[in-house]
């Protein structure tokens, strides 16, 4: 397997397509410039394509192991994690107050892409920890922040998010884990959690579990859920590790993929927990962080797409089979590289056109995440917040769907060699397969988009947002993007008409709408990319213009049929009763 | 995992939708009637959902094992194979002359669906054998047929197809395996073959390899390839097994799925081989059988879709999570079964609508395969041959793509529980993944369709075929199917204009065209199904009408965007040069 971090394209997006001015103008970002970002991206790319990619296949073969009550990570993970910590990657976007580097999100999403591409199992140990860090940094008391966060930034302690229980995943309101107040202001947490990523492992000295539970007497449903910090080892007043807390690892899951990642079933038995934020407000705090985490998961999908594309291209350039259509590259040969087969070229271009467009959308969204967090301009920060809220489910779902279609397509280009394990293509498919499922399934993302993001203030923002990009596409005479945006606006109107009156219709067309949304807005990202290239000539720009054209002519037409299925078909769905399934 | 063979739907197609008259009128089919077919389908369904399904998961876990030069099948496979033989399943469509039952193909494709659904790894041991049997029955001399075939029908000997070599899969013209004439009229075969399904195993006493090789001095390319029978054990004149032939198992592949199936690398070292058919005509003989095998692979994809659908439906009826849109099934509950979520219902209906429509197409095509083989009416037999030739690549590619989309969708409905191994959903995805790859990748099918089946006599037949189904859709006032057929005819015209002038454009739009073809013709199968129900009332018919409507309104609109990408975009593909990939 090869991986070359797509730094050229990343820098094009940062410097030329969107520009760094807005991000640099934010407080704390004074030192952020092209040179700094380029250096960091190159270092990250090097780390990923050497340290992480090389242990990825063995990680899959050995898997994480649960024995004698402890979890061991696969060979090489400990050494790689030590270097990861040493190089400062655990604190890159953390608060300088806790020893972090406070670098912008727009940089971090690109690093997320690289980590996701080269070793998702490894990445997850750090990723969930980072999510837990930000959640604590936003929500916990000063005392807890001071006591726990520096060690998280330093990478010596890590964190988890404990949400799912055997009977509830999507619907966390059903959870039964209990919290009983103890004398000293802490709580006793009891219950069973499943699917806890990095729930136990041997990479850090302590693990800080962020657990949602119901305090005795709290209301049912999501409004009775509180958030607790439950360390694996209790922490003494001097910061040293104390006794083992009442949390044990019951088992780890045997999974289709990301087998190097320990997915744990954890039992909490009167474990000591500390309330984080307000009572019964745990879901709100958790969701705030889950939203950022959802973009991160989207970047995993993009990373899988990129590494799948790179390897499929390399294979297609190397594998000779059958003759190309005339004019052949070399008439004297018995066969040509399969990349000359138009169908193989199509598959590669379909990946590339979506990958580059999606990356532009990621950079655009992450820049707004930075504005949302740091801008002193209230209006700008608020608009950015709406933009991020609107695009988060689109990025999570579309990018991970793209991860699946790209890894499957790359595997297909390898033919039978893609089905055997040695080339690693089948591992990409298996590892990527979790991304459309976790952090809220892609169907849940679509429901979030149509039910929450098209309504209220984000809904008002959406209208402005669509109108602006439609105008931009028109101004740049991009007929395909213009049509796609018109389809999006028309589909949005269909939902608006039904929000109050027909919940089932709204929910039933959600995934189609999310896909239409993503295709159309990525169409505009291509308009923007092409406009940003101005009259620049040369290989990179010339190729990118051709990819843009391919996207417009070969990918975007799907919005037409999506619109037709959305606006034409709710009756066919509604008409079919659940009892009809048994006939 | 559950599996209930969809016999009700199968019988509807056989008895009501298409009727058995034509098949019964064929010589040798005098005893074929509804009762007989129903009895056999029920027996097959019982065998599959008990004997085969129960050993499928262990087959995946243990896999086939290669040690000390021999291959061992997973636990339970030997016992199941003994029952399979005992019940006569190895000879169901074989020639009565060799002890077979000579039952029609239309029955066998439905059994193929069941076998594919419940245990593809097991099925492959018998399936390749059956392919080899038919190839020998069509092509070999009377002497060879008499000597080898009765044991194949009895299931005590099995067969393989040895085509692929390390450097050639799709392009077999590049093969290097050599055949040197020996004194006694036999040949000495030497070379390395890979990806040989059931290349070695412990289920039968002998294995008959059908090997393609080049006789010393034969032309390069596919016109210099001959076909040989190379038994694992030579057969004495009295029919007893003689010495071991010069074929050894170098290794078996470690694969993403169908791990219970032994995929072998075989070395032939001066092995004794017998020429089958004429010198240098091996590919033609092989392809004749591969076409039937391609329909069989399509049925595997359909089987995967069906079992994925059944289990996802059962899970969705059982798993309570979140509230359904009003009116809820039970307002007193905290949550409802997820099948009430419109998006889950949509995914299930999307599977079902395609599965039932595809099954209709399979029955329709298989009936024509019977006519092609047995009809004494030359014109009817010839038309049937064209019909089967035209639809074979469509069935192979679309059905296996459907297998992937259905297994992935079913896994998605299970959420995180679909990603862990215990529920078996992830195994379905892994096992199904080979079907779009082997027996000619789906891209090769699409090329076959546009390059060979839209031209010449099959091309002329295609025009009549499209016109007839368009007229049928119109007559039945099926607007959606009418539009889809018009799209298909328009797209076909686009190819016709370019067949001579623009090979690259033809090849580059082939997969889109195959998908459009499949969607449109399955639309007509739904027209036919609905028409066949006449005024029949009751659950089965009422549900089927609703599924038909869902297909028309929610699945068929895709033909519009497919037509747009076909007719609108060859320049975007052509414009991108191979060298642009490196920019």
Structural class of chain A: alpha+beta
Largest sheet strand order of chain A: 4-5-11-7-6
Distance between the termini of chain A: 49 Å
**Unreliable spans of chain A:** none
What composes the largest sheet of chain A?
5 strands, mixed, barrel
3D shape of chain A: globular
Total helical segments of chain A: 21
User: Can you name the CATH architecture of the domain at 7-142 in chain A?
Assistant: Orthogonal Bundle
Oligomer: homodimer
Instruction: Give the % helix of chain A.
Output: 55-70%
**What is the CATH class of the domain at 7-142 in chain A?**
Mainly Alpha
Question: What's the short story on this structure?
Answer:
2 copies of one chain form a homodimer. With 583 residues, chain A is α+β, with helices and mostly antiparallel strands. Helices cover 57% and strands 12% of the residues of chain A.
Question: Your description of this structure?
Answer:
Two copies of one chain form a homodimer. In chain A, about 55% of the residues lie in helices and about 10% in strands. In chain A, a hairpin with a 2-residue loop joins β1 and β2. The first copy, chain A, has helices at about 5-15, 20-25, 35-50, 55-60, 75-85, 105-120, 120-140, 140-155, 280-320, 340-375, 380-415, 415-420, 425-430, 440-455, 455-475, 480-500, 505-510, 510-535, 540-555, 560-570, 570-575, and strands spanning about 65, 70, 155-160, 180, 185-195, 205-215, 225-230, 235, 240-245, 245-250, 265-275. Among the domains of chain A are: about 5-140, Acyl-CoA dehydrogenase/oxidase, N-terminal domain (Butyryl-Coa Dehydrogenase, subunit A, domain 1), CATH 1.10.540; about 155-280, Beta Barrel (Butyryl-CoA Dehydrogenase, subunit A, domain 2); about 455-575. In chain A, the strands form three sheets. The first copy, chain A, has a five-stranded mixed beta barrel with strand order 4-5-11-7-6. A two-stranded antiparallel ribbon of chain A has the order 1-2. A two-stranded antiparallel ribbon of chain A has the order 8-9. The mean pLDDT of chain A is about 95. At the A-B interface, α10, α11, α12, α13 and α14 of A face α10, α11, α12, α13 and α14 of B.
